[in-house]
Design a protein that fits this description.
This protein has 332 residues and is of the alpha/beta class. The chain contains 13 helices and 8 strands. Helices cover 51% and strands 11% of the residues.
Length: 332
């Protein structure tokens, strides 16, 4: 009816292109755009297209809407062939490709329901992982070796959540709800009702081997046994167990509740079902999960180690540290 009234000239045809009632006077508009440019440079120093968008808006305000549209069409055509555009397309499709894992996601397996998660270790990584879990409504059991360490771990999780409240990303009510999902433990008694355990203790082979032997005893037979190790061979960690098929790496990056990447490390023994289950958990806690092989440094540190070693090698050769730092930053 609305459209017909316009068509039959009963209602005015307002061409939105020529509406100016929401525009500030030119001087004010230019100040706003100047501020927007400064923000864009700060947030994305190496990106050209946010600045191009601002230029296009300015053209429309200064020279009229048709001039703005022409500038937009021309600018778009130019950006379309830029390296940044190709890179962003690559990232877009790469992120989607992470959910397709040959030998796991192509077998028709459905992820099993994970209703309770246990985390061993309330240090920087353990508390960060626990925060990510309770933010996505997973009940979490945090285990530590003594009362002092347990309280310190719970305090870290509270601090993580309070930081979100301060930044306005979370209400007080949501804070209380998330915190109510967290419980602490000093022993393994409550582990019989857990579907996923993530071990996040110090990088000590003997300690991890002992923990996984204990987990095998106390956890139900379907429970996924994951480790947050960044360097240790998973076969070595699970050496003293008969549960190699459900041992998997869940390698988070610090701070775990902020960084979006999650490496899921599978060995030649890890079952496809466990991989599918962890991929599902990764998506539910809003991470980008990538499935990688069980090798030194997995994927990220395997690239990062030579990257930092190269920088340090140039330092040893006497090159200016700031010059190296600038090259790293400019690279992205």
């Amino acid at each position: 009816r609305w459209a017909l009234d316009i068509c039959e000239l009963r209602k005015p045809w307002i061409k939105s292109l020529y509406k100016t009632d929401k525009l500030e006077p030119l001087g004010e508009a230019r100040e706003i755009l100047k501020f927007a440019r400064a923000q864009a440079r700060k947030q994305a120093a190496n990106l050209e297209h946010p600045l191009v968008c601002i230029d296009v808006i300015e053209e429309g305000i200064v020279s009229g809407p048709r001039a703005g549209l022409w500038k937009e069409a021309n600018a778009f055509q130019g950006l379309l062939f830029s390296d940044t555009c190709k890179s962003l397309l690559h990232v877009f499709f790469s992120q989607r490709a992470t959910s397709k894992v040959p030998g796991a996601t192509d077998l028709g397996l459905m992820p099993r329901k994970i209703t309770k998660v246990a985390i061993l270790g309330g240090g920087l990584m353990g508390s960060g992982i626990a925060t990510a879990m309770i933010l996505s409504n997973y009940p979490v059991l945090l285990k530590e070796v003594n009362e002092k360490f347990l309280n310190a771990g719970i305090d870290r999780i509270k601090a993580n959540l309070q930081s979100r409240v301060r930044k306005g990303k979370m209400t007080e009510e949501r804070y209380e709800k998330a915190l109510s999902l967290l419980s602490g433990a000093l022993g393994y008694e409550k582990f019989k009702e857990v579907d996923l355990v993530i071990e996040a203790v110090i990088e000590n082979v003997k300690l991890k081997q002992q923990i996984f032997a204990d987990l095998e005893k106390y956890c139900p037979s379907h429970c996924i046994l994951a480790t947050n190790t960044s360097t240790i061979d998973l076969n070595l960690i699970g050496e003293k167990t008969n549960s190699q098929d459900r041992i998997i790496g869940a390698h988070f990056f610090s701070p775990a509740h902020v960084m979006p990447l999650l490496e899921i490390v599978r060995t030649q023994h890890t079952s496809a079902q466990v991989v599918v289950d962890l991929l599902d958990v990764g998506k539910r806690i809003k991470k980008t999960p990538i499935v990688v092989g069980n090798c030194t440094g997995f994927a990220v540190n395997r690239m990062f180690f030579p990257y930092t070693q190269s920088a340090l090698l140039f330092v040893d050769y006497g090159m200016d540290v700031y010059k190296i730092d600038r090259a790293c930053t400019k690279f992205g």
